[in-house]
Amino acid sequence: MTAQSSEPVLRARGITKSFGGQAVLKGIDLDAHRGDVVAILGGSGSGKSTFLRCLNLLEMPDAGTIAIGGTAAPLRYDGKGGARVTDARALNALRARTAMVFQNFNLWAHMTVIDNVIAAPVHVHGVPRAAAIDRAHALLDKVGMAGFAGHWPRQLSGGQQQRVAIARALATDPDLMLFDEPTSALDPERVREVLDLIRALADEGRTMLIVTHEMAFARDVSGQVVHVRDGAIESMGPPEAMFGPDASPVFRAFLSPG
Ligand code: ADP
Ligand code: MG
Q: Contacts from 182-186 at CB under 8 Å and sequence distance 24+?
């Protein structure tokens, strides 16, 4: 459950990915240690989502290494852009130590709120159903959604759906949480409730990578800001440096175009 203290929770090296000959990731290196909150900023199409999907092994990189809590992803490359999973069980075990929160919530529409939250604990982690339900109720309470256990996703607002999605992500007690523009699909008045929740998780010491366009939030909540541009890390550093007077001109131009 806990990573070796000497090992970063995430170590990614040289991650590359192309789609149809177009290089989308050009060799990304990133570490996150326990409790780190890393904000990933960058323009549309720069490769942010592809990078998160590679870390979650939803997408297989074309090259590079990924280790979660010191365990390397069991991938072998043929050097021609093909990745082979050398141990499917180990890959699934590694994938199960991360959790992703998506822009469009991606709750399972045919399942109630509580069933969404218990699905991975019960079916992936083998948690007894009664224990999973108890924990799910506690998590729904934590995200301010107590009393909605029997609702269907379509009965909830976007902000409510995203809070359920965060409860679902927490249900497996992941080592690493990946947020992909968690507030971009929300009405403005719902953004704050989700940002406040993510901030509370940061304060609890969760290790998180957050792709976001909420610059004030990124600056405030993260310990490390990463600017991804055209499939590569253009600059990175603590928010005081990235948003300070000596920031990269390229990053400054991204923040204030024109
Ligand atoms: P971002 O999240 O920064 O907006 P993405 O990672 O979604 O960027 O996409 C980066 C580039 O990769 C875009 O040009 C996008 O069209 C392309 N891309 C992403 N996923 C796929 C895919 N499954 N097939 C083909 N092209 C893709
Ligand atoms: Mg994206």
A: 182/101, 182/102, 182/103, 182/210, 182/212, 183/212, 183/214, 184/103, 184/212, 184/213, 185/103, 185/104, 185/105, 185/158, 186/158, 186/159, 186/162
Q: Do 80 and 37 fall into the same domain? A: yes
**Global pTM value:** 0.95
Per-residue pLDDT tens over the stretch 212-250: 999 999 999 999 999 999 999 999 999 999 999 999 999
User: Ligand 2 centroid vs 93 CA: distance in angstroms?
Assistant: 25
Q: Which atom of ligand 1 is nearest to the CA of 42?
A: 3
What is the number of the ligand 1 atom nearest to the C-alpha of 47? 6
Q: Would you state the pLDDT for residue 96?
A: 93
Same structural domain, 126 and 85? no
For residue 22, the CA-to-ligand 1 centroid distance in Å is 10
Q: Which atom of ligand 1 is nearest to the CA of 43?
A: 3
Residue 78 and residue 182 in one domain: yes
Domain count, the chain: 2
Please indicate, yes or no, whether residues 92 and 212 belong to a single structural domain of this protein: yes
Looking at the CA of 227, name the nearest ligand.
1
Are 6 and 81 found together in one domain? yes
Same structural domain, 7 and 121: no
Tell me, in angstroms, the distance from the centre of ligand 2 to residue 85's CA.
25
Count the Cβ atoms, other than its own, within 10 Å of residue 131: 12
Q: Domain of 60?
A: 1-97+176-187+206-258
CA-nearest residue for atom 25, ligand 1, is 19
Closest residue by CA, ligand 1 atom 21: 19
